[in-house]
Amino acid sequence: MSSGAVEAQKVVVGKTGLRKFLEQNVILLVLFIMIVFMAAISDDFFTTDNIINLLRQISILGILTLGQTFVLSAGNFDLSVGALLSLASILVIGLQPELGVGGAIAITLVVSILVGLCNGWLVGRVKANSFIVTLGMMSLLQAAALVFTGGMTLQSQEPSFATIGGGSLGGMPYLVLYFVIAAILFQLLLNHSVFGRKVLLTGSNSVAARFAGVKVGNIVSWTFVISSLTAAFGGILISSRIMSASPTAGAGMELDVISAAVLGGTSIYGGEGRAYNPGAWRTYFGDYDELHDTDGDSVSVSDDDERIGLTVCGWDRFS
Amino acid sequence: MNNTKVQKWLIDNVSFLIFLALFLVSSAIASEFASFANLNNLLMQVSVLGIVAIGQTIVMIAKGFDLSVGVVVSLAGIVTVYLQPYGLVVAIVAGILVGVVVGMINGFAITKLNINPLIATLGSMTFVGGITLGVTNQNPVSGTDMNFLMLSGNILNWVPLPFLFLMGFLFLTDRFLKNYRLGRDIFAIGGNSDAAEYSGIKTDRVRFLSYVLCSTLAAIGGILLASLLNTGSPIAGNGMELATIAAVVLGGTKLTGGAGSVWGTFWGISILNILSNLLDLTGVMSYYQTGLQGLVLILVVIITTISAKRQKNKGGMLRTFQ
C-alpha cells in the first residue's frame, strides 16, 4: 500500500490539532522517550556538561542536514556535501597564511557558492540527474582536497580562528547557537516563506510548478547553493574547533545527512519537508552515541547500534 | 532505414556509443589496453560489478534503492570461503542463502513495516557490515579448496567464466522484465504504485521479490569475486552500492522508477570500468583519477540527458519497456 495516499486521505478527513501534530511528529515522541530512557539508565545523562557536549556533537551534522532538507524538498539529492565539507575545511586553513582568517573564510564561501551554482545549473537547467551529478562532484571535490594538501593534514597557525567554532557564550558553545539560529531561520524559510513554498511545489510536481509561474531551474539552483553553503560552513566550524583539517574529514557524511533528513520527515521524492525535525532527530542520534560512550562501549559497536536505532526509528516514522 | 530512425537508434544507444568511443580512445592512447591480459582482466571486473548491478536495476525500476549490495557481496564471499571444508556445493549454496536472507529482511522492512528503502537498506548495510567485520575479526579469510578457483577461470583460454554468467543473467533478466507478467508488474509498480495496486497487482509481494532478487544476485557476484581472489575479504564490496547505482542511472534507468533496462546498466558498468582501467594504464596519480572519474561521470550524464531531451522533443516515445 502506498502510505502517501493514505496520509493524504487522513489530512482531508481532518483531525484535532494535537493528534494531527503528534501523527506528523512521531520522531519527537521517539526522541522524548529516548531522553527519558537515557535519564533513567544513566546518572550522568542530565548533567549540564553532557547535554552541552551532546548538542555540540550534533550541531555540525545538523547544519548540513538543514541544507540537505532544501535539496531533498525540491526533489533532488546532494551527495557532494561531505566532500565539500572536507574541501572547505582544507581551504579555510590552507589559505590563512596568504589571506588571513577573514580572506580565507570569504574565499571558502565563494568556492562553495560556485560549487552550488554548478550543481544547480546542471540539475536545474541541463536537467541532469542530481544523484549522478553530485556523485561526480563528490569525486571532483574529494580529489581537489587531496591534491591541495597532498593527502596531508593541515594545522592552523592563527589563534584568532579558534573562537569561531570553539568559543562559547555564557556556557553555551557558539556551535550550538549557530545550529539553533540556522534551524529557526531555515524552518521559517522552508515552511513560512514564498521561496519555501516554491521549493516544495517544485519538489511535489515540477511541471505544475512551471505552469504556476515558478522559475523551477532557479529554485533548484538556489537549493543547491544553500546546501553547499551549509557544507562549507560546517567545514569552517570543524576546522576552527580542532584547529586542523584533514582532506577526508567529511567522507561518508552525505549518507548520514540524507538519512537524518529523511527520518525528520523529508521525502526523498520531493514535495514534503520540514527543517525543524532533522534537528530533533539529530539530538536522538547523538543521544545514542552518548549512551554508549558513558557505558564505555567501543566506538565501532556503538556505530552499529546507532544504525539499528536508526532503522527502528525509521519504522516509527514511516509505519 | 530513414534519417529519423537512425537518429532514434543513436539516441537509444547513447550509453553503448559512449562506451565504444571510450574503447577506441583507450586503444589509441594506451598500447597495453588491447592486450589479451588487460581485456581479460577488464571482462572479469565488469562481470562481478555487472551481476550486482543487474539486481540494483530490478530494484530501481520498482522505484526502490538497495544500499546493502556492497556488504552482501563481502559477506557472501566470506561465508562461501569459510564453509569450503564442508564441500563446495554446500559453501556456494550457503553464500547464496546469505543474499536471500538479507533480501528478505530488506523486503520485509520495506513492504511490511513501510520503512523508506533508503533508510531500511542503509540500516541493513551497517548491520550486515557489522556482522561481516565481527565474523572475520576484520581479517580476510583465505580459501582452502583449489576447485573453487575454477568458478572464475577462463573458458577456452579466453573468456572468463563469470563473464558468461553475466551474459546469461543479462539475457534472462531482460526476458523476465520484458516478457513475463511478474517483470511487467515491476515496471508497473515503479511507474505508479497506486495504479498498480488498484489494477490487482500484489505490489507488496512484487516489491519484496525485487529485493530478494537483488540481494541474491549481489551474493552471486560476491561468490565469484571471492573465487577470483581466493579470499573472502570483509571490505571486498565496499563502495559497490554507489558504483552500481551510478551505472544503473548512466544506463538510462530512472531514479523515479518505471523505466530502464539491464542492457543499459551493462553499458553503464562498462563505461565506469573502462575509464578506471584507462587511467590505471596511463599511470595517472590516484588523486587525479578520482577527480577525472567525477568529471567524466558529469559529462556522461550531460550527454545522456541532452540526447534523451532531443528524443522527447522529436516526438518519439520515451522508452518504457526497453
TrEMBL record, chain A:
One matching Pfam family: BPD_transp_2
Reply yes or no: does the keyword Secreted apply.
no
Cite the InterPro entries for this sequence: ABC_transp_permease
Transmembrane annotation, as ranges? 25-42, 54-72, 79-95, 101-124, 131-154, 174-195, 216-238
Q: Does the keyword Cell membrane apply?
A: yes
Q: Where in the cell is it found?
A: Cell membrane
Its keywords, alphabetically, are: Cell inner membrane, Cell membrane, Membrane, Transmembrane, Transmembrane helix, Transport
Record membrane topology: Multi-pass membrane protein
Query: What is the recorded name of this protein?
Result: Ribose transport system permease protein
